[in-house]
Design a protein that fits this description.
alpha/beta; Aspartate Aminotransferase, domain 1; Aspartate Aminotransferase, domain 2; seven-stranded mixed β-sheet; about 40% helix; about 15% strand
Length: about 375
């Protein structure tokens, strides 16, 4: 077999090991405090784990319906209607997915063809572009500027052409922690209204938003909702990222095409977990209380580093905080990030990894979805820099 020939024919020739894996491996090698990857180091609610066990014992261990367990789709529909005043049919407008990443990949695969352009807001989570490229699409970038990371809608509109098939947004935004406001969403709605462009709205941190602000889901805006795939994550919401559980909501016409791909990519999703989530979601406090839970962690972290040399704008959502290190070093963020692991014992994510052409914003991303003692240790290290 000619491996070199296969390598030349790669569909993703420029894709390397993700920054998450690279940093994670280095952190483990040097026994560093890991605030890089976005997952909690505390346990999920024992009630939720007990519900999964109950479902296992009750015998829900065979294939779930391709679309997902109806009871879970039904409660999701009720949740969205309550929060965003948009009713999605559990029958043909909601699908349970293997995390939000599968939902995003499936939506892109269902609609993006060779030569189609897809607008990507940078810095962007790293699963968007490979999915676009694998399907023959062309990523078109809108770069956001530090420290606010707000969309310039004039620049955005100028990126739209007759080849634009899809736009991807992410709110609350990973990695910046910024959010799209009602005014932002209305501007987007106005820009897209005369087009047939599909909107892919990544809303995995939908229930983690701070300081009394509101999550402006695409579901809230009629013309956006009519063209949108809204993707969400139970893993992020309920501290169980390893379960890989998510969902997608979209108008029936879009969802019909989504399910054509979904059924052959994964067919269905973990059945007992779906049963457990359907019961757990009946108590809205399980997700509505997250704002305060994570805001306390954000504030603990930010109050702790007040005496440090870092500068920051408090995260508006997600469980990530960007720190500006220009008072500490003029190094490239990847170099500083590596040095902090090897010399100081703390791991973070360099933001250049998510920017156009790896532009250096002199920002590092820290995850504060950690136990109090972990955050206190992190603060101690950061204040000594």
């Amino acid at each position: 077999m000619d491996y070199e020939q296969h390598k030349k024919a790669s569909k993703l020739p420029d894709v390397k090991t993700t920054i998450f894996t690279t940093v994670g491996n280095l952190a483990r090698k040097h026994h560093a405090l890991d605030l890089s990857q976005g997952f909690p180091n505390f346990e999920a609610d024992e009630k939720l784990k007990s519900l999964v066990n109950d479902a296992l014992i009750a015998g829900h261990n065979q294939y779930a319906p391709m679309q997902g367990y109806y009871g879970l789709r039904e409660i999701i529909s009720e949740k969205i209607a309550s929060l965003h005043h948009r009713t999605y049919s559990p029958n043909n407008e909601i699908t349970i997915t293997v995390g939000a990443t599968q939902a995003i990949f499936t939506a892109i695969t269902a609609f993006v063809n060779k030569g189609d352009e897809v607008i990507v807001i940078k810095p962007a989570y790293d699963c968007y572009e490979p999915a676009i490229i694998l399907n023959g699409g062309i990523p078109v970038y809108v770069q956001l500027d530090a420290p606010d990371y707000k969309i310039d809608w004039f620049k955005f509109q100028n990126k739209i052409t007759d080849k634009t098939k899809m736009v991807i947004i992410n709110t609350p935004h990973n990695p910046s922690g910024s959010i799209l406001t009602k005014e932002d969403m209305e501007k987007l709605e106005t820009i897209l209204k005369p087009t047939n462009i599909i909107l892919l709205s990544d809303e995995v941190y939908e229930h983690i938003i701070f300081d009394g602000q509101v999550h402006e889901s695409a579901s809230r805006f009629p013309d956006l909702a009519n063209r949108s795939f809204v993707c969400a994550s139970f893993g992020k919401t309920f501290h169980v990222t390893g379960w890989k559980m998510g969902y997608c909501a979209a108008p029936a016409e879009l969802m019909a095409e989504f399910r054509k791909v979904h059924q052959f990519a994964v067919f269905c999703v973990d059945h007992p977990v779906q049963r457990a989530l359907a019961t757990y979601l009946k108590n809205p406090s399980h997700y509505l209380d997250l704002n305060n839970f994570y805001q306390e962690k954000r504030d603990l972290f930010l109050n702790g580093i007040k005496s440090s040399k870092f500068k920051c704008k408090p995260s508006q959502g997600t469980y990530f905080q960007l720190l500006d290190y220009t008072n500490i070093s003029n190094e490239e963020d990847e170099a500083l990030g590596e040095r902090l692991i090897t010399e100081n014992g703390i791991a973070s994510i360099p933001i250049s990894s998510f920017n156009v052409d790896h532009r250096n914003d002199y920002m590092l991303r820290f995850c504060f979805a950690k136990k109090q003692e972990t955050l206190e240790k992190a603060v101690e290290i950061l204040c000594k820099l």
